[in-house]
Design brief:
Elements (H helix, E strand, L loop, with lengths): L7 H6 E3 L5 E4 L12 H7 L2 E3 L2 H11 L2
Antiparallel strand pairs: 1-2, 2-3
Length: 64
């Protein structure tokens, strides 16, 4: 049976932490930035964790 391929889109968007959680970047930080406050833009630069309900799905797509 062949190996299962990793989903390329998921590979680019998510990273695994040392403890096995899944890290993601926040949305809405790429364009139309003139209407967003400095505080909001600064907070959008930070990474976030994937919700626990989605963690199993993402890990399966990463083959982790």
């Amino acid at each position: 049976m062949p190996k299962i391929k990793t989903r390329s889109g998921v590979k680019k968007r998510f990273k695994l932490t040392g403890t096995g959680k899944v890290k993601r970047s926040k949305a809405f930080g790429n364009h139309i930035l003139t209407t967003k406050s400095s505080k909001r833009k600064r907070n959008l630069r930070k990474s976030a964790l994937v919700h626990s309900t989605q963690m199993k799905k993402i890990k399966a797509m990463l083959n982790a």
